[in-house]
Write a structure and sequence with these properties.
By secondary structure, the protein is α/β, with parallel strands linked by helices. Helices cover about 35% and strands about 15% of the residues. The strands form 2 sheets. A 3-stranded parallel sheet has the order 1-2-3. A 3-stranded antiparallel sheet has the order 5-4-6, with no helix packed on it. A hairpin with a 5-residue loop joins strand 4 and strand 5. It is elongated, with a radius of gyration of 18 Å. The protein starts with a helix and ends with a strand. The C terminus is likely disordered.
Length: about 150
C-alpha cells in the first residue's frame, strides 16, 4: 500500500499537465447522493424531471423536483477533503483543471479556479423569457417557474 501511494505521488509531482475528471462520487462524502444506485436520487425522483422538453411542458411539476434536488437538498452540502486536495494541487501548479459532471459548485467552494462543468452549475439561473442570469439567492425559489437552471 505504501509503495502504491508513493508511486501515485511520484506521478503527480512529475506530471506536466494533469487534469482531474470528477462525477457524483466525489460529492457523496459531502452528503450528496449519486443519481444512480439503490439510494440514488433516481430512486426518489423521475429522471424526466430534468429534461428541458419536459420542463417546457410541465414547468411547475418539473421545478418542484429541481428545487428539491438542487436547492433544498444540495444547498446544505459543503466541500470535502477530496475537493480540497484538488484545489491544493491546482494552487501548487500540479493540476491544470477539473472537469466535472457535478453542478454542486463544491470544487469552486473548495478553492479550485479552473473548473469545466459539463452540465452547468446550480448557482446560475437563466430566465427563459429574457435570458437574464440570476443567482439563486436573488429570487424566490418557491415561486420561481419562469427561470430555469442552465444545464449545457
Amino acid at each position: 500500500m505504501k509503495k502504491d501511494l508513493q508511486e501515485v505521488a511520484d506521478i503527480i509531482s512529475n506530471s506536466k499537465s494533469m487534469i482531474a475528471f470528477t462525477g457524483a462520487g466525489i460529492s457523496v462524502e459531502s452528503g450528496i447522493p449519486p443519481f444512480r444506485g439503490p439510494d440514488g436520487l433516481w430512486s426518489k425522483y423521475d429522471p424526466k424531471c430534468l429534461d428541458l422538453d419536459y420542463f417546457h411542458l410541465n414547468p411547475v411539476e418539473s421545478w418542484k423536483a429541481i428545487k428539491s434536488i438542487f436547492y433544498d437538498f444540495f444547498g446544505e452540502a459543503s466541500y470535502n477533503g477530496a475537493h480540497k486536495v484538488l484545489a491544493q494541487l491546482e494552487e501548487k501548479g500540479l493540476l491544470k483543471a477539473v472537469v466535472t459532471q457535478n453542478i454542486d459548485n463544491l470544487h469552486q467552494e473548495a478553492g479550485s479556479k479552473t473548473v469545466y462543468e459539463f452540465h452547468g452549475n446550480s448557482q446560475k439561473l437563466i430566465c427563459l423569457q429574457c435570458g437574464k442570469s440570476y443567482i439563486p439567492s436573488e429570487v424566490n425559489l418557491d415561486e420561481f417557474v419562469v427561470v430555469w437552471n442552465h444545464f449545457k
